[in-house]
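Protocol step 4 of 6: structure prediction from sequence.
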Amino acid sequence: MTKSSLDLLWGTGDRPSRGPKPGLTVDRIVTAAVALADAEGLDAVSMRRVAGELGVGTMSLYRYVPGKAELLDLMLDRVQGEALPADPPPPTHWRDTVTALARTTLGLYRAHPWLLRVNQARSVLGPSALRGLELCLAGLKGPHGMGLSDPETISVIITVQGYAAGTARMELQASEAARETGISDDAFWDAQRPYLERAMLSGDYPLMAALADDTFSRETDHFAFGLERLLDGFEALVDSGKQKGIGEEMRAGGEKRAGGEKGAGGKKGVSGA
């Protein structure tokens, strides 16, 4: 199964020698599948349904894509590629790279909410996935990079992607709750308001009762706030690494000078004897 996906992603698979007219291609199949998932969710995607969207028989698709698992791998690589700039600018500062990674990842999940339903723990790595990683590494390990070890650099990427995915998941759940219940967010909280007001007046929750009126304002960009704190944390790590490097250089320089002075003294003693 994985080999089939890799062959399709990297263009090493055999092309159909017979069957449907040339107008049907892997690209058209993936495009139709992504559009279907965007419109109706991942559960709507099946080989039969995609074939119907393309106006062909289901068996025609199997001559191009072995099954739904391989189709999903192709869909993942397709949308990942859409999020990448065609002509990326040269890397500037690593903070810009981390910010772009976070916002691009969040935008990807917002554009394709079905991605949150996909288990990507063992994703098949195609051209788009590798190009995205290459772009990240160019900014994180380039001239204006973080100076971290390779495992630490990958940890930064995983942390940022996980943060963006968590935000997107909360947004999706809020949207689904409103759609499934038919109750808007405003109506949902308005129904709780009398109970919450009595609870605040009871004196049992003094800290919550003292919160400012705009504490839960929708105007607050919680994603931006959290992202800045992540950046600040990474900055502290980068700075600590620089300070450690400076300290090691100073110690090495001191040891070198001490060794030179000792050697010079030793020579003087021998010649004097």
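Step 5 (inspection) to follow. Residues 96 and 139 are 8 Å apart (CA to CA).
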